[in-house]
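Slide 14.
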Amino acid sequence: MQLRYNYRVYPKPSQRIALARAFGCARVVYNDGLRARQEAHAAGRPYISDTDLQKQIITAAKQTPEREWLAEVSSVVLIQSLRDLHFAYRNFFASVSGKRKGPKVAAPRFKSRKDSKQSIRLTTNGFSIRPNGRLHVTKVGDLRLKWSRTLPSAPKSVTITLDAAGRYWVSFVIQVAPEILPEAGSDTGIDLGLRHFAVLADGTKVDSPRFLRRAEKKLKRLQKALSRKAKGSRNRDKARKKVARQHARVADRRRDFHHKLSTQIIRDNQAVYAETLAVKGLGRTRLAKSVHDAGWAQFVNMLEYKARKHGRTFAKVDRAFPSSQVCSACGHRDGPKSLDVRAWVCPRNSCRASHDRDHNAAMNILIEGRRIVAAGRAETLIASPSASKTRTHVPAQRVEAGSHRKGHLAQAGVPGF
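Slide 15: predicted structure.
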């Protein structure tokens, strides 16, 4: 399977200038390619192939005075930028035709120099790792990395990213073999919520850390200071970076919490079952801030890929399953309950079992997950033998090429942990 290993990188001032030039050239090539295809479509001409687009946007453009500065960066960066455009169109066409599952994807959009993230991607002929641990990037130089862990194998590609907080990151795509853990004698269902982040079928309750709520006071002060700065001034840019750094700290803490909890659950259980949640719908309610602060989707994605990596079984229970309405002891369905009902008693005379709402839901998810696995509809390799012949791909990009019709795609990267 393929995993992504992220590291912090600290470029020198001259290297920052070279990276900024590479970010800009990649963005211009992407926008030129998108404009060429849009103009061809508007004029009724056939879709421009990738080879013809590369000759037009890169090879021929370098010979013109308007685009001769494209030769100042590695050609690998420019070619990979057009490949990103190709994947964006492919995702869009697959979504329109119904071949692509999940939320609808809109047509590619133009990139801006004001986007919160700038990135370039290189294949093996555009970078190398020096014996001294430096990352050599063509026409940029040797970058100093903070090696928090060693790479298990030679990387196949690397993505260099500048985030909104002004931090530089490198992301290596590595081909790794599954690390099968010793067999565990238990399985569990997980009920995700707001009062408790997660309740397991064995009764364990994990409190919600509420990282954003805890940082709101400082964020309010920083955002107030930002609003008072003149637009276009250097002081405003400094204030903007302070706000971005605070949001980055919140996201880092949340990600660290998700990693530690998901790893513990995967190690302790042979099979893990979780419920799919309508995050997009909940994000339009009065609970929106708390829902996004919890980060359920990121946590479930971590459970899924770690289960695949370590040979565990993982299955998702459909959101329509009435986990909070069914008695886990006798199976009697009692009907919907308002959110303020945290405990209830089964009305069936032969049962009369007392239930904690969240624990009962976790038990029902466990029962339904076992049924899904027995039916052969689980997501992981160990649950479906035929899937063992397929490879698991995790792309190097932090965000999938293309965009949803209502906002950008959520971050779906899977860091190697």
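Speaker note: The radius of gyration is 24 Å.
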